């Protein structure tokens, strides 16, 4: 990752520019703001003071169902798809550059995957039990697949691919027998996705489950559709049309997708860990509504005053997500002597400045909010100096 200045356009956020000049487009600030809101929420839910004291909306659903926290990751993948539509539109017009562009897509995706592995390995670097799937790993894989699909296909084909993946995943999960287990099912440890994870990556899965992973292999396919929904939305926003018309149709399709997801939930339950097809439609629909609202308020109506705190998160989203995962691990390595014995620095700060003054749930939330403010100050300084760390 290298700091660059000046502040790049949205196209540069994702890939280096192609050699052939293409007409520049104004940066959509609303996309950075929506991305910033999403990554800020990621940090909020990933950094409680105590994992045993979390308010219900800040928890993932135990299995079936969807909490506000379950919206965060699909919203991020959705905005990855929107960014792909902006970043690669120039290269898409020049078939002779597709090979070089695909190489850059793969390079960036593998970089994200490697950063995710580094987070999983740090600080022990135990390769025998390292968790191979993960959030950044899924972002990297989805970016590669969705980027190549956008580059090599047209809108109609992208829609057909999305439908095929959603229907195919539903059919496989609901009707294909599970080897060694029997009838298909959607139980946590015996569904087909869990069997595939445990068969191909034994000992390298999420430590909380050990035999399946919420960012597993098979469920990455419908996650690609989440990004493709963003790709389709990005192409719609890029159309030369009246903003009001674009927003109206984006809202209409947002409502349609959300309702389709809720209807499909009756047969194929909304489930973040399985990334079910109903979950894809439900979260993509809500993401369309969110992007449409941000686009109308920020880029059409020109309301910018409230956006800076989210904007600073949005332009350095991967950077802050990565560093916010590294710093707590470093804090766990720094020990402090107390009257009760040696504790890590995070525990010392939390028990010294939060738990004595607040009830357990509020103390846990206050710690997470402190992290948000801490990173906001750093990102604000970076933004003012036009520093963007590109992956």
UniProtKB/TrEMBL annotation:
Keyword Transmembrane: yes
Stretches assigned to the Heparan-alpha-glucosaminide N-acetyltransferase catalytic domain: 27-240
Segments traversing the membrane: 71-89, 101-123, 135-152, 159-178, 216-237, 249-267, 279-298, 310-331, 364-383
Segment forming the signal sequence: none
Keyword hit for Repeat: no
Sorted UniProt keywords: Membrane, Transmembrane, Transmembrane helix
InterPro entries membership: HGSNAT_cat (IPR012429)
Pfam family, one: HGSNAT_cat
Name of this chain's protein: DUF1624 domain-containing protein
């Amino acid at each position: 990752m290298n700091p660059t200045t000046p502040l790049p356009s949205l196209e540069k956020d994702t890939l280096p520019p192609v050699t052939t000049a293409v007409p520049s487009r104004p940066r959509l600030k609303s996309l950075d703001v929506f991305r910033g809101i999403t990554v800020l929420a990621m940090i909020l839910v990933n950094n409680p003071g105590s994992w045993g004291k979390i308010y219900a909306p800040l928890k993932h659903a135990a299995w079936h169902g969807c909490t506000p926290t379950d919206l965060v990751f699909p919203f991020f993948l959705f905005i990855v798809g929107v960014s792909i539509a902006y970043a690669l539109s120039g290269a898409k017009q020049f078939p002779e550059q597709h090979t070089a562009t695909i190489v850059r897509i793969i390079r960036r995706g593998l970089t994200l995957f490697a950063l995710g592995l580094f987070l999983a390995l740090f600080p022990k670097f135990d390769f025998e039990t390292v968790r191979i799937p993960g959030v950044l790993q899924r972002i990297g894989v989805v970016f590669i697949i969705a980027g190549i699909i956008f580059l090599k296909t047209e809108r109609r084909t992208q829609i057909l691919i999305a439908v095929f993946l959603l229907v195919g995943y539903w059919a496989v999960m609901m009707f294909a027998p599970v080897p060694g287990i029997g009838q298909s099912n959607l139980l946590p440890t015996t569904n087909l996705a869990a069997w595939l994870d445990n068969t191909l990556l034994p000992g390298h899965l999420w430590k909380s489950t050990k035999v399946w992973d919420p960012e597993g292999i098979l469920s990455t396919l419908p996650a690609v559709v989440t990004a493709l929904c963003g790709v389709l939305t990005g192409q719609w926003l890029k159309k030369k049309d009246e903003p009001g018309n674009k927003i109206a149709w984006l809202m209409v399709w947002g409502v349609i997708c959300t309702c389709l997801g809720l209807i499909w939930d009756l047969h194929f339950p909304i489930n973040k860990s399985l990334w079910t097809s109903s979950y894809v439609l439900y979260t993509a629909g809500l993401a369309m509504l969110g992007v449409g609202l941000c686009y109308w308020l920020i880029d059409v109506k020109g309301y910018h005053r409230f956006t800076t705190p989210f904007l600073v998160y949005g332009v350095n989203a991967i950077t802050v997500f990565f560093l916010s995962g590294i710093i707590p691990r470093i804090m766990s390595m720094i020990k402090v002597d107390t009257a009760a014995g040696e504790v890590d620095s995070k525990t010392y700060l939390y028990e010294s400045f939060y738990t004595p003054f607040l009830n357990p749930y509020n103390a846990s939330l206050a710690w997470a909010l402190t992290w948000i403010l801490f990173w906001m100050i750093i990102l604000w300084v970076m933004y003012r100096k036009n520093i963007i760390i590109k992956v």
